[in-house]
Design a protein that fits this description.
The protein is of the alpha+beta class and 417 residues long. It contains 16 helices and 11 strands. Helix 7 crosses helix 9 and helix 10 packs antiparallel against helix 16.
């Protein structure tokens, strides 16, 4: 029986049609089709025949590095059955030919992937994050802060007395977590606005805007406890590790086929990363909750600040969409424009000071338009922070979910016997 194939000599990229012929003792002769020249001979026991996978080309490797590509699977299978009987040569093809096995394999792959993403990867990233040396965390924090200072943040405008008062109020919480090397710093929020976040080395950054938004220092303390939770559980490092692994896995599965495929491939990465982020926020919220209860601080401080922050953001978005502008911002812009027309230039420091003055009045501006905000929110129905659909695209859980457990009554202390 003759097998048709394409021959590669292993020395050049050139190919040529050949026929493989086998005699009664299992010796294969490779004959060039064009002139019937004998190229080489080899015993079937000395060649490497790759397993059959569907109808894809099959490769036969010869001892001196040559190979033959063929689609005559029937001939190859007959030779193997006759001279090298073994189940491994036909196992893959036999299994993939059964639809039930293919369906079972698909289910197992999906189940394994789900378990890996939901349980395996978080556990692995937690282990890795807790075993990284401190110098890695210090470098990551330093580079992150440098980037934020350069692109998003501004120097703080809080006076020294305010910063000292807040740090004094934070001192007991920082002392309770001395092993985490907690250090609180302040920055102007810039385009980030009212926020606080933790860096891997234990640095916790508060923006001026969230300080102005808080009505007392206990509200800020509840946020500090939340950020300490991020440091304690290494959330920033775990997020980077998990996101990198998922991105690599998706790239390995999909390859770099086209821009469209890259866009589609990025969706599972985005959704999975956001899901991890929401879990981290829940864990940090729980740390804040435990801290408040342990130190006999009212839980409502966290709730009040979160609800006020959500209200400010949503109100600002609704007013902006409607075209309502802050009178403070308008007057600042008019003043700057007038100064520019008269003098030909505006003092940069003065412009920054005016902008910061407007930022400080963000909550006051919302309060001035509260009635209008309430009407806009009522007409909209559902808050953007409580939308189940948008919740899948958010890095934080819904506001109602976050505040609900803080509104629950804490368990009473056990009675003394």
């Amino acid at each position: 029986m003759v097998l048709q194939g394409i021959w590669f000599d292993g020395k050049t990229s050139a190919s040529q049609p050949v026929e493989l012929r086998m005699n009664e003792v299992g010796t294969i002769s490779v004959i060039r089709v064009s002139d019937q020249t004998l190229l080489t001979t080899a015993s079937i026991t000395n060649i490497d025949v790759k397993s059959r996978v569907g109808n894809t080309p099959r490769y036969i490797y010869f001892p001196d590095g040559e190979k033959c590509e063929t689609r005559d699977h029937a001939v190859v299978d007959q030779w193997l059955r006759q001279y090298r009987p073994s189940i491994k040569h036909s196992l893959a093809h036999s299994l993939e030919s059964h639809s039930y096995f293919v369906a079972l394999t698909l289910v197992l792959v999906i189940a394994f992937s789900w378990v890996t993403v939901v349980y395996g990867l978080p556990a692995a990233s937690r282990y890795i994050a807790y075993h990284l040396p401190e110098k890695v965390m210090d470098r990551a924090a330093t580079e992150t802060l440098q980037f934020l200072d350069k692109v998003h943040l501004k120097p703080t405008s809080l006076d020294e007395e305010t910063r000292a008062r807040i740090l004094k109020h934070f001192a007991p919480a920082i002392a309770q977590n001395s092993d985490l090397r907690i250090k609180v710093i302040f920055r102007g929020g810039g385009d980030i606005g009212a926020n606080a976040f933790a860096l891997p080395d234990g640095t916790v950054l508060f923006t001026d805007e969230i300080v102005h938004l808080a009505k007392n220092d206990d509200e800020l303390l509840s946020v500090l406890a939340h950020e300490i939770g991020h440091v304690k559980y290494r959330h920033s490092l775990r997020s980077v590790i998990q996101g990198s692994v998922i991105s690599f896995a998706v790239a390995m599965v999909t390859g770099d086929v086209s821009a469209a495929s890259n866009l589609l491939a990025s969706l599972p990465v985005v959704f999975t990363t956001l899901s991890y982020s929401r879990d981290f926020e829940r864990e940090a919220d729980n740390n804040s909750l435990l801290f408040l209860d342990a130190n006999h601080i009212e839980r409502h401080y966290f709730v009040d600040l979160m609800e006020r922050l959500s209200y400010q953001v949503e109100c600002s978005l609704l007013l902006r969409d409607k075209g309502v502008n802050s009178s403070n911002a308008s007057s600042t812009n008019e003043s700057a424009g007038s100064s520019s027309s008269e003098s030909g230039s505006v003092d940069k420091k003065e412009a920054v000071d005016k902008k910061e003055a407007v930022d400080k009045k963000g909550w006051q501006y919302v309060e001035e338009h509260r009635e209008e905000c309430d009407k806009l929110m009522a007409s909209r129905g559902e808050s953007i922070f409580d939308s189940k659909v948008l919740g899948y695209f958010s890095s934080h859980p819904q506001t109602k979910e976050r505040t609900a457990k803080f509104k629950q009554q804490s368990a009473p202390a056990p009675a003394s016997p």
